[in-house]
Every structure is written in C-alpha cells, then in structure tokens.
Amino acid sequence: GIFSSDTDSLTCSGENVLTCTYTTDSNSYDGSGRFTCTGYNVLPETSNTQQSTVNIDVAVIKSVVVTVTPSSYEVEYGYGFTINSVAVGGRIPFYLEFSKLPSSGVAPQPIALYNTDTSKTPSNVVVDTQRQTLSFTYDSVTSADYDDAGEYTCSSKNRAAGNQVVEDKGSAIITIVKDVEIPQPQSIDVDFDSSFTVNFSLNGGRPPFSVTVTNPDGNVILSWTRSSNSNQCTGTNEMTCSISEDEADYSHDGTYTISAKNIAAENEEKTATSSFTVDIFKNVTASILPAVDSNMTYKAEQTITCVVNGGLPPYQVDLTLPNLEVKTWSRGISASSSLSCSGEHVVTCEHSFTAEYESDGDYICKGYNRVRSSAKRYDTANVKLTTVRGIEADVTSNSTNVLTDGYLELNCTVVGKPLIRENEVTWIHSNKDIDLTGNYSTSKADDYTLYSVLVLDKPSVSYDGEFTCIAGNANLSKIRVTVAEKEYLKV
Prior knowledge:
Helix content: under 10%
Distance between the termini: 202 Å
Radius of gyration: 57 Å
Strand content: over 45%
Number of helices: 0
C-alpha cells in the first residue's frame, strides 16, 4: 500500500528487491537529521521475522538570511532603544557580527562577534540549532545621545549548497531626535572701541539647519544654514557659532537674540530662541555749555547744558549752581529729579533760568556711570558765568514845578553791573551857562545801585528848563522843571 499525508509520502515497488521512496514537501529545517530505513521479511523455514536497517543523514540547505528589526527608528534623546538581529540558514550560520558603522574611513568595531571557526562563541549570541538560527539583541543603550545615532549592521555567514560560504546583511537606521535647544549664552562686558567675540552653542536631533542672530537694533548679523558655506557655525548635532565685531561703540550695547531651527520627532519643525547681553563700558566724560567762562545779560533767559557721555549708560547727573544748590537727575526715577535730562549713553541735561545778580558764579556738571574697576566712575565740567547789566539812569518823574522861594530836590537812580563810580554821575541844565556843580551828591546804595540827589534852595527863574542826569555812557534821563515867581499880596 501507499502511505501519504499532506506533506509526506512513502512508496515502495518490487518483489524480492523492494525499492522505497520517501518524499516530503516541508520547507522547514525540521527535515534535517538522520533518517532510518528498516526492511522486514519472514524466512519460510523458521517463520522468523528478519530485519535490516540503514541510516541516511539529510541536511536542509539554505543560504543565510539576516533580519534586523526595526529597520529604522526615531529615538528620543535620553531614552533607550533595542535592536533585534536574527540570522537563519541551513546549515546553521557559523558567523555573526553586529556593528555600528562609524564615520567614513574608519573600520567598524564589532559590538558582538560570533565565529565558530575561531571558537568565538559569546553568550550574548543565542544559538538555536533546531531553528538553525543565531540571534543577538542590542539593548545596552538606556539613555541615548547623539553619538548613538547612525546605521547598525548585522552580518552573518553559513555554508550552503556545495559547502559554499554565503553571507547576508541587514541594518537598522537609528535617528536621535530632540527639539533644538540653545543653552543660555554668557553675557559679556566690552570696552568702548575694543573688538569682541561671542561664542554660543546649540544642539538638536535632527541637526539644526538654521541659525540667526539679530543685534539690539533688530538687524540680522548672522544668518547660517546647513547648505551655506559659512564657517560662523560648525558641528552637526552639537554646534558652536560665533559672532565678532570690531571697534565696539554704543550701537553694540544691548540684547542680542539667537534663533535656531531643526526637524525633530515626527518630522516636526522646532524653533528655539535665546539671548545674551553686551555691555559697553567707557570712562564717563562730562562737558558743559557754554564751554568757556562768559557773561550773561541781566534778566535775559539763560540755558546751561550739561552733557554726560559713558557706558554703561550714565545713571546720575548733578548740576551745582553758584548758590550751591544741586539739581539732580537719576535714571528711572524722573519723578524725584530736579533736572531735565534725556538720552541713553549720551545724556543731555538742560537748566534754564532768568539771569539775576545772584546767578553769578561757577556752574558744575558732574556725571556718574557704573564701570569696571579700572574705569572712571564720574567726571566733572564747570564754567563761570557773570551777569552783566548796562548802566541805566532814571529820574523819579518827567516834570515838576517849584516856586522861587521853594525847595527843589531831584533824584536819579543809576543801576548797572559792573557799576560806575559815584563821580561818573553828573547833572546838567539845558541852559549850558548854568553850572550845577556843588548842587548834587551821589552815593552807593549797593553793589549795583547809585543814588544821585540834586538840591536847589529858592531857585531863581533862570533854572526853569530841563535837568539831565548823566551816568557814564548810559541813556540820558531828563526832567522838566518849571520855576515860577512867587507872587505877594499887596495891601
């Protein structure tokens, strides 16, 4: 008869010579091994059963096939990952190497190496003779960083048909993903007119592809892309960028903004920003206008301008007046400031007033700023102003009347700064033949005022006319005097 199943069959034919054939359709490695064929017959003479057995060793031959899972994998920075490698073949593979491909030009260093030809049989490579497999699980990365990204390969060899050595490879691409970040750069202090360089770092997975820096005025001073040839930024996942400026001035003072972009997990574009501050230091200097000692006109409007230049920005300005009163401005607290000022690094302050006699004296401007230990913290400038007033003469009225037996008194006030001497004040009459010498006297009331008095007792009618008070080169001040005869009643 015939034995058969879905996959196997045994057929025999012949009489005294029985030929049997076993056939299997199974593609499993379970078919490998020793097959035993036993034949039986009965001897007629004794009716005893006889048997004979032969062995056939069968090997299922297949070229090795390597499978690596996952074939590609996004791994969050700081997290672990696992790669499974399986090599299957008949005969069972005798060699397995698991490696991470390094940068070009460097030979890979095996992470695991199994080779029965050299008696390398590490325990972390699992051998399954029944399934004709070698397997290795890479799970040693528990906190991935950028160095763990790359291509991992598994190579395996076996002896297939004809005892020929065949090889297969599989690989997994590991991508370390992380939102781009910019560690806080360090702010710097720079002396005015000096050059400076600011270095900052950033990182991300996938690598950042764009970096920009804007200065305090909002202008872009660095614009780097991965496709550009600029060397202002270098590196892959971990990058370093730098900006440099020559001859620092106040325009470089302030906050600089950094922006960087990358493609992170699930191909999502991410943006990070950070900033740093550049403080420009400069010895403070003060100046004052008027710049030289000068005069100011009495009762005229006068302005003192105080200019303080420094970096960091000046924070206080004092203006000391001749009477020692101090006008003060303080940055940020204008409500308590008695001096009007404006400006950042160059602070301009103005003090306006009407010139009086007491406005004479020294005006002192003093400015302060915060500086490094070797720099100047404050500076002063001063100017001396003198109030001047032209000589003016003024009589008490424009006209007056007097009788010949009366008493005439005329008053003239002379003012000026500087003041003329008393003997420089004279009186004259419109009748040039009349000499008034001895009829007037002049005295000093204060540093800026003279009083001159002309007296006539019982003036004659010849004094009728204009009296003029003359004070140096001042204006002429005149008064009309009418002298009348006194009439007596006759009885």
